[in-house]
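Worked example 2:
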Amino acid sequence: MPGDAGSPAEPFLRITEIFHSIQGESTWAGLPCTFVRLTGCPLRCVWCDTAYAFHGGERLTLSQIVDRVRATGTPLVEVTGGEPLAHANAFPLVEMLLDEDFTVLVETSGAFDVAPLDARAHKIMDLKCPGSGESHRNLWQNLEHLGPGDEVKFVVKDRTDYEWMKEVITERALDARVADGSLRALLVSPVWGEIDLEELAGWILGDKLPVRFQTQLHKLIWGPKRRGV
């Protein structure tokens, strides 16, 4: 795991890329967004599409990162990875961006404690389905720290993942939390190229699930292999 603890005067993070694009997922999909992709992730989901962010990266101070984000001129920012919350300095970075009046989304695997995140940030948190190979890493107490601005995402590979998701939604009363507004949304994201979209949509409609079916818009625009989009 790349280090992320600089000197007290100049804390830093390793950054794989900072880029300006169209937000491809979540309830924020379609909006121009600046992405800050941190380097390093201890998870190894079998369908991961950002394995290039596991290693390397450019060492940047938090101030340098904020400067680069500011230069794009876009008010919406997503801090992603890798796994951003595996790095202690991601938390002050989020706070710095919020203090600059950016709207900040934090995309996290759900395997790390989200409680220390600034409450002004919007958490988009995965719950890893069995098909990821990492469902044992889900930190279930994170659900207690999600609020009205936050979203839970399920990346679904097959029918087994779908049935697992349904069970979690019911057992954890996530549908009730969406209905009463204490959680922003439940997202269902198909693994690219692994599951028939019409079939998945049919399951959702048949079960009347209170979820938002999303595809990865950026992949529809630029293709599944393009980086920096």
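The chain has one domain: 12-222. The two ends are 24 Å apart (CA to CA).
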